[in-house]
Amino acid sequence: MSEEQIQEENTNDTENDSSVIESIRQIRIEKAKNLREAGVDPYPAGPFEKISTQQALAASEGDAVSIAGRVMSSRTMGNVSFGHIHDESGEIQFMLSKKQLDEPELPEPAYKFILKNLDIGDFVHIEGERIVTKVGEPTVLAKKFRIITKSLRALPEKHAGLKNEDTLLRKRYLDILQNKDVQEMIYKKAIFWKSTRRFLEDQNFIEVQTPILEHTTGGGDAKPFETHHNFLDAKVKLRISTGELWQKQLLVGGLEKVFEIGRQFRNENQSREHANDYDQMEFYWAYANFELGMKLVEDLFKHVAQETFGTQTFEMNRFGKVHKVDLSKPWERYDFAETIKQIANIDINTATDEELQKALDSTGVDHDEKAPSRAKLIDRIWKVCRREITGPGFLVNELFELSPLAKRSPDTPNTVERFHVLIGGSELGNGYSELNDPVDQLERFNTQQQMREAGDDEAQEANYDFVEALEYGMPPAVGFGMSERVFSFLMDKSLRECQIFPLLRKEE
């Protein structure tokens, strides 16, 4: 039975029909064997001279062209066959003619041999002439036609496609192949980070690389991944920030403007906004403060949005609400305590822990902590409140208890010089005037360590090496970090959708 007959007899969903998949696979394995027996390597090494399909489309009628790519369709009409070939730039029709084909090295007749062993999904190299068919379609008439990669598995049916989102993400290569918008998303993401890098470089920041493996994680409130380092015979952890404490040590060493774009890892839940490993950018700027940091960040967001998407106006669907965001307008300032009071009707400065717990319970948000700290209660209430804020703007005057690495506000010591970017009901970046008082930093680390010992595994670890570095003196500075969550919001997609290969559960 041929592959076509198998597919015709199984017209229902065959995406997960292992018997059909294996039957087709065995037929194609036999075709690869036929090619080898005829002296044709089904997996030859390159190079193969080619122009893109878009260049072939733009070529003049009668031009000699050489193209390569994946066969996406095929139909035979006696001594003539047509199909479409796909490469990164797009698709173009090709034509095989028994009279025009010049393949003396193939078994006779070459035309029949090719059709017998060619399948949709195969990669081919075609040398021929650019023509226009009778119906006016730009086409490459093949003079030489060679299979350069034999596909052993049938592609999903083009129009029905893969339906299951988990399957699409697990087999992302097929999603990219059959959905142009996914390919375009990858291009946009590259521009997003490229424009971020260029913006900072134009502001005289230099890019650095800091360790991913650490003995003590720092720079965030998160649970790390742990592993054993065989050579050092020590437990090490994957970083939870993009080198915050390391970059600040560079400021101790005399550098003044540094940034890093890299991967960071958090051993926590996954959600529409959260992943376990993702790209993050962090910068640190000596002799500046959070006010200058906010100005730079606002300019950064506007620049990156314009460069990546060609606009500063976006629509974001988050938490059941449509947020229409215009980054080009002046950004608002949102006072932490006042905003919570307006939205949740509770004064966090005077409320008791019991009142805070009651306010949190009234939101209906699940939380599994039996006795969260006061700081955790306030933070959880805030996370509900922020969903109502469209932005763009900055959250300011955050509580000291929530910011173990930020400098206190001189006028209100219970708050810190910290800011969060608020867009589309969420926080899309975090920055602050960096704490550079080693005595104050040590006290805060000790407080965080006590929280860890009490069971809060997201509290920050005490890093005494960093305290020692601060004792040598770090200049006043501002730092800021943002992740690829920003990109996902501007795309109006989940973070998982915007990762090329997201981490998924292992298949059973």
What does this protein look like?
- The protein has 508 residues and is α+β, with helices and mostly antiparallel strands.
- The chain has 2 domains: 3-161, OB fold (Dihydrolipoamide Acetyltransferase, E2P) (Beta Barrel); 178-331 and 391-498, BirA Bifunctional Protein, domain 2 (2-Layer Sandwich), CATH 3.30.930.10.
- It has 16 helices and 20 strands.
- The protein has helices at residues 3-9, 18-37, 53-58, 110-117, 165-170, 172-178, 180-202, 244-252, 290-309, 336-344, 353-362, 374-385, 438-453, 464-471, 485-491, 495-498, and strands at residues 64-77, 80-87, 90-97, 123-132, 138-149, 206-207, 213-214, 226-229, 234-238, 257-265, 277-286, 313-318, 321-326, 332-335, 393-396, 398-399, 415-416, 418-423, 426-433, 477-483.
- The strands form 5 sheets. It has an 8-stranded mixed sheet, sandwiched between helices.
- Strand 18 and strand 19 (426-433) form a beta hairpin.
- Helix 6 (172-178) packs across helix 7.
- The longest helix has 23 residues, at 180-202.
Topology:
Blueprint: H1 3-9, H2 18-37, H3 53-58, E1 64-77, E2 80-87, E3 90-97, H4 110-117, E4 123-132, E5 138-149, H5 165-170, H6 172-178, H7 180-202, E6 206-207, E7 213-214, E8 226-229, E9 234-238, H8 244-252, E10 257-265, E11 277-286, H9 290-309, E12 313-318, E13 321-326, E14 332-335, H10 336-344, H11 353-362, H12 374-385, E15 393-396, E16 398-399, E17 415-416, E18 418-423, E19 426-433, H13 438-453, H14 464-471, E20 477-483, H15 485-491, H16 495-498
